[in-house]
Structures are given as structure tokens and as C-alpha cells.
Amino acid sequence: MVAAGAALADEVGLANLTMGLLAERVGVRTPSLYKHVGGQDDLNRRIAALALSEAADAVGGAVQGYAGRDALAAAARAVRAFVLEHPGRYAATIGVEPSGPDDPVATAAQRLLGAFTAVLRGYEIGESDVDHALRMLRSLCHGFATLQVAGGFQWSADIDESFEWLIAFADRGLRAI
């Protein structure tokens, strides 16, 4: 049920995902969904956990065997590709708060952070700056990808070139710390 909800969120947008629409998609009556999920909030949390897990897999797989700028580029490209392919499920991850350390949201988020922390090992980042570097990378990747999904780049410069410029900029910044 969660996978169907995530696919539907990607198609119609998370804000437009409803239990009724999901029930229609999977061919059941809306009350039947409550055997699988506790309601809209529970569905959105489960979609967030799924999305974080999928993003962690994508980033973790992309950075395998790379270090430094190559790892950074692989991670950034993986996040961007994930957001472009799955905008609805990615939207579910924004602002979701884990209910505790065993919450699937927390577990998946830690895996994703772990993949980006591994990227930072290729740079001389002091332990006290790791959180700042992680926030910077998330902001760059999130901002670029969500603006692209929303059609926010309407001018003539090639979007892929701009993204590669962003990666080079982040790499220079991380090396300068």
C-alpha cells in the first residue's frame, strides 16, 4: 500500500495525495486502506521512510569506491536524480520528525546521513564542522533539485552545466575549510 501511495504521490504531488485517491488507484474502498495504514499522516510518514531509505540506497551505491570530489559528485547526482524521479515521495521527507530512535524515518535518515558523512571523509573537515558541512550539502542538493522539479530554472543556461558548476563550487568550498 505504501509503495502505491508513494508512486501516486510522485504522479500527483504529495499535497494532492488523499486516502480516497489511493483507494481508487488500488481498487478498494477507502475504509479498506485503514487495515494497512492508520490514516493520511501515517501514510505520509511511511512514504517518507520509504523515500529516505531509497535515497540512502541511491547515494550509498553511487559513492561506493569514490572519494573526494568524485564521491561528492556521485552523491549530489544521485540525490538530484532521486528528487527528479520521485518528487512526491521526496516531498514527504521534508520536515518529518522521527518519533524515536527506532522509527523507520530515523533509521533511514541516519543511513542517508551516513552516506554523506562518508563523502566528507574525503575532505579535511574537522569533527566540529561535519554537521555544518552536511547541512550545506543538503541545502545545495535539495535546493537545486526542488527548484528544478518546480520549473524554477527558466533561463537559457543548460541545467546540467549549472548543476556541475554547483558540484565544483561545493568541492572548492569543502577543500577551503
TrEMBL record:
Record-annotated DNA-binding residue ranges: 18-37
Record's keyword terms, sorted: DNA-binding, Transcription, Transcription regulation
Keyword check for Transcription: yes
The keyword DNA-binding is annotated on this UniProt entry: yes
Domain HTH tetR-type span(s) in chain numbering: 1-55
Protein name, per record: TetR/AcrR family transcriptional regulator
Species of origin: Streptomyces vulcanius
